[in-house]
């Protein structure tokens, strides 16, 4: 194997199997050969037929059930774009930047649960995908990125537009493949989709040399995947489940700490059954919003740096955390040694690497939460029949008091300009939970997390772990392609919007009628908030000159009109409802609304970085009086 070429999962598994075989005791039976994993797609059988590698790429995508891909052609991927023109089963959407293709694939996957696909050429085309690939890795999003590579004969020679994209992406993918033989294409693509969509979902890169695309091969379907070492555990260990049930039945201050893995596992119904059985409060992280209805009486809100007071308090005072598909991210825990200091931890996650990585689990359960939760429900029922149902009335009395005392809210800005929180509240009220809401990163993201009512999974899409500015517009585009009958709102900041708004051209040309609400405070809002609070109001390089009483460069209304979108502007809270209603009536092209709002509005609550969550502030220099609640 050449230097720098990745070891395949199959080879890694073979080496492990050979090592295990060398250490079998005398007389021990041969290890069982696991059944080959099933290939994604409708299950068609294709008899052997001669074709080029590039034709095999397209045919494999068809057989895998792919209907939509996002990409841009270029020299090294050009052989594949030729047969892509002939397919009637795959809709290719020509984006304006490769990063847009990657985020569109993410939005497609997040909104639908299906694997998103993006395509780019070698060199800068591939490197432009890196941010989106890293984003998908951080948030466990199933994406397959297909890139062209220079001919295998010149790899390593610094050929034109050569870049070692496999080496670059190995740390941020579940696996990265370099394909140099046409015959390997069907198997590799089948493996890529299987890896991306099973276990803990995530991105997989398939880099295909140009000569592999051009060479002739024999295509047949389905291929036999070579992944003997890849067998994610899905069923939780029965002993651990029973021990978890024992802790739940004994807890006086339990909290269900629910992460995005519960959304990925499609476990909303199972979660609700567990919550209602135990009567425990539920907190949902930024990636889990909607998996448990926010209107449910047991929901406390989002935890963490910008979490609700009841959610943050509940975690800090809990005696048991039932952690489901979450990873104890620093934005949730704050200063880790002070997080939930008296709580025991049950941690269920499909990725064993996450368990006890940041917080030691008293009861670790490796597996798919969709399978673990029903087993846990049954075990809790048995335990409570034996030991009785715990009385949580005192716990709920405290939490209910906090909910009444510290509800989410906001005040009108003192400068008389529009209120961003009001805009987002009204977007939610007038559009409803059947819509999809996609946010960029920053203040508008946190306001969207708080002031949209989330009632169903996959209603809310955002860049959480990586915090990628520019995510919203292309991700909304991908979401709309996968959910054409839903209203899709991209709620973006004026800074984020300027990073990827070229994809409005893609939306117009392809008739993808997303709606974009630009929360225009004329600044890099979250950075400005930190400058206000921690840098004595020294606003170094955060003024964007896009809002009220500025030069308005760019003018978002003119920009949107130049792209062929419907364009509206709203500068007063009194006009918000009318403008949103007008936008909802337009469905033949994208709509962009420039909501001009105050730069002084801030996101509250807030835990300053590096301190205990117990120091949460509800406004500047104001913390809750915990002693009154004890």
Automatic annotation (TrEMBL):
Entry's Gene Ontology molecular function annotations: acetolactate synthase activity; flavin adenine dinucleotide binding; magnesium ion binding; thiamine pyrophosphate binding
Gene Ontology CC terms, in alphabetical order: acetolactate synthase complex
Region called Disordered, residue ranges: 1-32
Domain Thiamine pyrophosphate enzyme TPP-binding: 440-595
Annotated keywords: Amino-acid biosynthesis, Branched-chain amino acid biosynthesis, FAD, Flavoprotein, Magnesium, Metal-binding, Thiamine pyrophosphate, Transferase
Pfam families on file: TPP_enzyme_C, TPP_enzyme_M, TPP_enzyme_N
Free-text remark on how the cofactor is bound: Binds 1 thiamine pyrophosphate per subunit. Binds 1 Mg(2+) ion per subunit.
Sequence ranges assigned to domain Thiamine pyrophosphate enzyme central in this UniProt record: 241-375
GO BP annotations, alphabetical order: isoleucine biosynthetic process; L-valine biosynthetic process
UniProt similarity note: Belongs to the TPP enzyme family.
Name recorded for this polypeptide: Acetolactate synthase
Provenance organism: Kocuria flava
